């Protein structure tokens, strides 16, 4: 239950981050489009030869694509850094959950907190699961105990 809550929080953070990044991309696209329109207007006012206009437009497009590429690289680095941070947090939370579950197995049955008081309400998404269950060897006793109960 705790792990599911943490996963839900992690997914919520990721969704918010992706929405924010999409909004920033849209804003960047709008600004680039406005800049392109302004450049077109200034070029038309110069009344340059067609060859020079083509060359200038190509140079502008190369500049725009280079800037876009740099922005995307920066965004990628930021996303990778955030992903590493979130993975590290998830590992920490998973370790805490394992430690907590291990401490629960060492307590006598009459000293354990009531199971229903520890459950956390988490919305479930219906999923179709297929295949085998993957687990670490050290989690086997805990897995067996949970399957039996």
From TrEMBL:
Origin superkingdom: Eukaryota
Alphabetically ordered keywords of this record: Coiled coil
Coiled-coil intervals, chain numbering: 3-103
Protein name as catalogued: MYO5B protein
Organism, scientific name: Neopipo cinnamomea
Organism taxonomic ancestry: Eukaryota, Metazoa, Chordata, Craniata, Vertebrata
């Amino acid at each position: 239950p705790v792990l599911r809550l943490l996963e839900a929080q992690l997914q919520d953070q990721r969704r918010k981050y992706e929405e924010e990044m999409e909004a920033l991309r849209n804003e960047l696209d709008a600004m680039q489009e406005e800049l392109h329109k302004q450049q077109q207007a200034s070029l038309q006012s110069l009344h340059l030869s067609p060859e020079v206009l083509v060359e200038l437009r190509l140079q502008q497009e190369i500049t725009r694509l280079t800037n876009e590429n740099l922005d995307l690289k920066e965004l990628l680095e930021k996303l990778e850094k955030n992903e590493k941070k979130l993975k590290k947090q998830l590992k920490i939370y998973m370790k805490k959950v394992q430690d907590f579950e291990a401490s629960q197995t060492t307590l006598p049955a009459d000293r354990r907190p009531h199971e229903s008081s520890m459950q956390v309400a988490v919305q479930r998404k219906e999923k179709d699961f297929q295949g085998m269950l993957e687990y670490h060897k050290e989690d086997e006793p805990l897995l067996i105990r949970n399957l039996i109960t």
